[in-house]
Amino acid sequence: MKKTKIGIFRTDDDLESAIKEALKAADWTRHIRGKVFIKPNLCSKHYIRGAVTDPQLLFHLIRILRDRAEEVVVGESNGYNYCCNDAMAMTGTKKIVEKAGGRAINLSEDKIVNVDNPEAYVLRNFPLPKTLVEADSVVDVPVMKTHEFTKYSDAIKNLFGCIPNNRRISLHPHFDMVMHDLLVLLKPKFVVMDATFAMEGNGPNRGIVIPMNLVLTGSDPVAMDKLCCEIMGIDWADFSCIKFIDKYPKREETEIQVVGEKVEDVKRKFLLPYADLAVRAQRWVYKNYFLTRLCFGTPFLNMLQGCLNAYRKVDEEIKGKEWIDKHWDNTLPR
Question: Between vectors from CA 277 to CA 272 and to CA 283, what angle results, nearest 5°?
Answer without folding.
Answer: 65
